[in-house]
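Human: I would love a firmer grasp of how sequence relates to backbone shape in proteins. Take your time, and here it is.
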Amino acid sequence: MHFSVGFLVIMYLIEGVHSLVEFTNFECELLDRSFCGVEYCRIKSMNRTYKYLSLKVNLFKTPVTDVKVCCEYGLYQRLNGYKPFLYNVTVDACKFLTNQNSHPIFKFIYVFFKHVFNMNHSCPYDHDIIMEKVTAENINHHMTKILPFPKGKYMFKMHWIAYNINRAIIRVYITLT
């Protein structure tokens, strides 16, 4: 009898455990410094459990009318190095922001950032690009409830292309526990 009560308690506790997203690194690599500059690209830790990402990109050649934001965006899982896990496609940001239902997978990713990102309108862009305080909470619900991902280490890699020239690469590293 003690075994079955203990087993039920353990099963209840396991059922109560849920996955958690944690940021482990954030990298911004500029490929064309004459086109844009990064004022800041940081992961900030407020305490042991609360971290957020912030980014500010200064555009030097405005207005920008041809953008493929998150072009060749991909999600990579760490398994003996980072291996492609989900998608690796190119999306025209100007067209997507005009009709967000045109690309459902990109819309799933865009939801993570749209409330903290000033690139939430269609082209042209005549201002700096700012993304402030993306918390793991923004991502946690989508990666654990809406489209559950297996536990592990992931890298979300975005190539930012303007006028068919790769201008920057952004990498967000997360752990799903």
